Amino acid sequence: MKNVVMIDPDLDYLEKLGEYLDEEIGYPILLHLFAGKDGFEYLKKQGADLVFLHECFRDQVQNREQIKELYYLTEEEGSCEEELFKYQKGEAFIQVILTFLKRQEPGKKKEDSKVYVVYSPRGGCGKTSFALGLAKACAEHGSTLFLNLDCFEDFSKILNHTSGKNLSDVLYYYLVKGDRAWEDIAGCMDHKDGIDYFFPTLEPDDFLRGPKEDWISLFEFFNSSGRYQYLVFDPGDGGPLLPYLLQNADKVFLPKIIGRREIQDKEALFLKYYAQKENFAQDRLVFADLKEEWLFGDYLFEGQIKELANKLCFASDDEEGYGKN
Asked: Omega before 204 cis (within 30°)?
């Protein structure tokens, strides 16, 4: 159990934020809320693992060595790693706390996420359906970020879009602030069924503007941040980022509709290209055979699609249905 202390003169703000954090995290943190000097008495006697302190109290902290990590709550957007804008969404505080907890786990080092890519050389074969089913399966096993790199006008009919931002905004914040951009990035994020996701870019050319290395740097930031155990990419029709994604994926899932013969020529060309590339290890390619009726109805991305994704991704090697290539 880790002691988390929050000190801010606005007690109503503290109580609302504290209630939210208790509901979303609960164990393994013990949250202590203070509006003023009582908080400093507590820190003097007990110390704390993690402290969120309003910037007006900067000069009142004593025995800094008794605090493992400290963040200042600012009235305006922070300018350094130890500052957090206090009025941002609660999800940003959750990410800070979870990242802190991961760093405190004994004997464990920060590991990269597992990267899964869902791709097919043709449309209408269930790529997005399988990608979302895979993301939902991953979310049952650990923290998951879903990244759709297509320009998808109907995306809001599939997943809620409340942030008003999209992936282009995420890239902008990252390029401006680098590793300090997380609170801005969190403000662009939406959530559903345990999955974090961003709305796709509004224009397909967004992935062509500027060097592709900027996008790659952003993806590697997500991969190595320690915030997610799984990154699920739906690259759409491909584009300039596809070679990077295929080369760096732990698994590449190739969905296809059972019984549709017209895709065989395109698949054969893709598989030939894939097999010829030195960094495209064939054992990372997994076929996902979908039935056409799975793509319709009220349980889209649930039921059989998620069950298949769960088998292909998480079943042991000797279980039936695993990695049928």
From this structure: no
Q: What is the CATH number of the domain that holds 83?
A: 3.40.50.10850
Closest CA to 144 of 119, 166, 116, 165: 116
Q: Check whether residue 202 and residue 66 sit in a common domain.
A: no
Cα atoms in the Cβ-side hemisphere of radius 13 Å centred on 81: 3
The one-letter amino acid code at 85 reads: F
Record the tokens describing residue 293, joined without a space.
């009726």
Query: Helix or strand or coil: residue 154?
Result: coil
Geometric angle at alpha carbon 262, from 236 and 126, rounded to 5°: 35
What amino acid is encoded at 270 in this protein?
Answer: F
Domain that holds residue 132: 114-314
Nearest C-alpha neighbor of 231 from the set 313, 122, 159, 294: 313
Q: Are 253 and 134 contacting, i.e. CB atoms less than 8 angstroms apart?
A: yes
DSSP label of 255: E
Which of 58, 78, 104 represents a domain boundary (last residue)? Answer: 104
pLDDT, position 211 = 76
**What pLDDT score does 261 carry?**
60
Query: What CA–CA distance (Å, rounded) separates 24 from 279?
Result: 40
Q: What does pTM read for this prediction?
A: 0.63
pLDDT classification of 149: cutoffs 50, 70, 90: confident
pLDDT at 118: 92
What does the CA dihedral 65, 66, 69, 70 come to, rounded to 10 degrees? Answer: -90
DSSP state of 112: P
**CB-CB neighbours of 268 under 10 Å:** 11
